[in-house]
Every structure is written in structure tokens, then in C-alpha cells.
Specification:
By secondary structure, this protein is mainly α. The protein contains 5 helices and 2 strands. The chain has one domain. It is elongated, with a radius of gyration of 22 Å. The two termini are 18 Å apart.
């Protein structure tokens, strides 16, 4: 991170830099405002990485559950992994949008001009599109279990394969993000 605040956060009055922004008044010193924004940026970045740390193993465990017996215990494991995967995906999306468009990272112009950013977004949309079938299926299965019946799990094998494609795409997204962050 640069030593001083980005130019967008600087406003000079009588030679003294002061912060401009929704969380900083013109009377606030730049260093205090910049420190708060840097801390917020660090927290959002950490949550973004945490989303990956939650999501990757949960989608892997969801695949394992799909491959195993889908009795009541197997469905419980599947639903638990699927819930964590859903939470991780939502956290990943929200923190990613904040990082790209919330003025916390490199700036919107950097992301808009990056072909790797658009590749990453395309891959993410691919994961979302692939997730529609499992999501709808698992909602039906959860409804059946709540009603006290075991669902028809004959489509589990196809969902297992979809799950692994999603897992592979997430891994590719991580590599694309790493190259993008380094300016490639």
C-alpha cells in the first residue's frame, strides 16, 4: 500500500491535507481517515480470502457427500457442506464487489481495464450458472427431508461431476486473481 493517501482522498486547504469522503470531514486529518480506510480495506480483503478458505473445502466436502451414501446422515453432511458453500459464495461476492467498486483497493478503473478481471468475472459467472442445478435440486431434497421422506437422489452422480467442475473453476479463479493482482 502506498505511503500516503490516494489523490482522491486529498484536499488541500492552506497547505494542510485534509480528508474528503463520506466517513471523513474536511476537518479530519488525512492520516486518520487514510488509516480507517486502510483498516477497512484490510478487513474486507481478509474476509474475501476467508470466503475462499471456507468455500473450497466445503465444495470439496459436498462432492464427497454426493459420492457417498445419501441416507439421512449422508444428506445431513451434504446439506451442511452446501450451506457453508452458499455462505462462502455470498461472502466472496459481497467482499469482491466492495474491493472492486468500493474504493478500497486499486480503484474501479484498474479493474475495468483489466482483461484478467473480466476473465475472473466470467469464470465466477460460470460457477454461478453451474450452481443453479445443484441449488434447485438441494432445495427440493431439503424440502423432502423436512417432510420426513427421503428424496430421489438418482441424479447425485451428475451433481457430483458438476460439483467438481465448479471446484476446478474456483481454483482457476484463484490463479487468475493472483496474476491480476500483480498487474499481468
Amino acid at each position: 500500500m502506498p505511503a500516503g493517501p490516494p489523490p482522491a482522498m486529498q484536499h488541500r486547504t492552506v497547505g494542510v491535507p485534509v480528508a474528503v469522503g463520506p466517513d471523513c470531514t474536511l476537518a479530519a486529518p488525512v492520516s486518520a481517515c487514510y488509516r480507517r480506510r486502510s483498516m477497512l480495506s484490510a478487513v474486507v480483503s481478509a474476509l474475501h480470502v476467508l470466503a475462499l478458505a471456507l468455500g473450497l473445502p466445503s465444495v470439496f466436502l459436498r462432492g464427497r457427500a454426493l459420492k457417498g451414501p445419501l441416507d439421512r446422515d449422508g444428506l445431513r453432511r451434504l446439506f451442511a457442506a452446501d450451506t457453508v458453500w452458499g455462505v462462502a459464495a455470498a461472502l466472496w461476492l459481497v467482499t469482491g464487489l466492495l474491493r472492486a467498486f468500493g474504493g478500497l483497493e486499486k480503484g474501479t478503473a484498474f479493474y475495468m481495464a483489466s482483461s484478467l478481471f473480466w476473465l475472473k468475472m466470467g469464470l465466477f459467472l460460470g460457477v454461478v450458472a453451474l450452481e443453479i442445478r445443484p441449488m434447485v435440486t438441494f432445495i427440493r431434497w431439503r424440502t423432502a427431508v423436512r417432510r420426513g421422506t427421503l428424496p430421489d437422489t438418482s441424479g447425485a452422480r451428475a451433481l457430483y461431476h458438476l460439483n467438481h467442475v465448479e471446484l476446478a473453476l474456483v481454483v482457476v479463479i484463484v490463479f487468475v486473481a493472483s496474476f491480476m493482482a500483480r498487474g499481468f
